[in-house]
Amino acid sequence: MNFFTRMERRKGFDFACVALFAALVVVIPISARAEMLRAGDNVAVIGDSITEQKIYSVYIEDYLLMCQPAANLEAHQFGWSGEAATGFLKRVESDVLPFHPTVATTLYGMNDGGYTASDPRTVAAFHDNTVAFIKKLQAGGVRLILVGSPGAVDSEQFKTWRLARCSPDGYNQTLLGLGNAAKQAAEETGATFVDIHGPMMAAMEKAKAKYGADYPTTIDGVHPLFNGHLVMAYAFLKALGCGGDIGTITLDAKTGAATAADGHKIISASPAKIEIESTRYPFCFVDDPAKKGSSRDVLDFVPFNEELNRFMFVVTNVPTSRMKVKWGAAEKTFTAEQLAAGINLAAEFPDNPFCGAFAKDEAAVKAQQAFETPATKILLHSLPAWEANLPEATNTLAQLESDVVGKSLNLEAAARRAFVPVRHTLELSPIP
Contact at 8 Å (CB) between 45 and 105? Predict the structure, then answer.
């Protein structure tokens, strides 16, 4: 698809599927839940140019690092523009296994379908190649493999996609069929299937119903904007078993007694004000919310905050029927009943005291993943050919591999160092 090059330069529907996701939120079906994330896991995020966009892969690494569903997690990105499953099959050992991942997510099928109506031979080949690369990953020590179905093309923009040889409806049917083949391959090999296509179709239908048929979910009909990438990240994170509990802060508005848990510490507290230090962040949506296709656009249609981003504030013994809560520069009014039940700060205050620190750390994650694209595509991928043609340089080439992987790990460590405790204040004032 050659998306990476273009990005560097310029820095109907499947109704049957949509009907399954007609509710406001979507549910992610997963074929197996035998083993999810463990402390210290190393997650390889693998795919074609949609992965090489480095958006959903950044969201996944952001979440693993800052929201901390398990301790000491790391992630690396292995996207390759224009790639099909057969292409990845040829580079598993050279590009991915030197990083020694214990978990992998894969996202193929968009190119495999050929941008045309479904062909049984294409589906069979995709199934066979998927089985083959799963087995290579397993043989290389990857414990948990999440096989994503291909996503969805935009119901309007795909009409002008330069490679399109069928309608958007037709190609989404092709992608649905390839997803079924991926599911079968996962079941045959003991991998975990993750439906990406269904949630993206459902979110797209609802977004276009709200914002208009010309509302964009992709850049060009194929490559998602931030909205689509958040849906993909949500699906993979759910499949990884992420529970979504970021932490809970409680306050007795009569006595001023306060508690915090799960990476949060009370510095001081009174009935009207709490100061907290947090070593665990809620997920923040730091792309430009004013632009069409932002990650925040899709939050009404995918329960990211509800299921993955619960940072709860519970207030008891509220003295009036309503209270104003101020967090950072933003403030909102809640009823006593809402506060007693607990409000989700991450959902209620998208612009919050964590956003600046989150954006800084995300920049370090982006720097790491930006290096990983040429590191794998140019350097590591070429090593087998050099070894075959220049055997006398085996030691030198082994050192090069070590240096490339080492730099990636150093950049990942820099992102981890950029993750620092955040002090923030919650203030309450009664509304007569």
Answer: yes
Condensed to tens digits (0 to 9), the pLDDT of residues 134-167 reads 999 999 999 999 999 999 999 999 999 999 999 9
Q: Where are the alpha helices (DSSP H) in 116-275?
A: 120-139, 168-189, 197-211, 226-239
The pTM score is 0.91
Q: Give CA–CA dist 345/366, Å, rounded.
A: 26
Q: What is the C-alpha separation between 117 and 198, in angstroms, rounded?
A: 18
| Ramachandran class of 263: left when φ > 0, alpha when ψ lies in -120 to 50, beta otherwise | left
For 281-328, write each residue's pLDDT tens digit: 999 999 999 999 999 999 999 999 999 999 999 999 999 999 999 999
3-state secondary structure of 280: coil
| Residue 218 in this model has a pLDDT that exceeds 90 | yes
Q: Which residues of 172-199 are buried (b: 16+ CB within 10 A; e: fewer)?
A: bbbbbbbbbbbbbbbeebebbbbbbbbb
Q: How far is Cα of residue 291 from the mean position of the Cα atoms in its chain?
A: 20
Burial of 344: CB neighbours in 10 Å, binned 0-12, 13-18, 19+ = middle
Do residues 306 and 24 touch, judged by C-beta distance below 8 A? no
Phi, psi of 23 (to 5 degrees): -70, 170
DSSP string, 19-64: HTT-SSS----BS--S----TT-EEEEEESHHHHT-SHHHHHHHII
Sign, Cα dihedral of 133, 191, 236, 229: positive
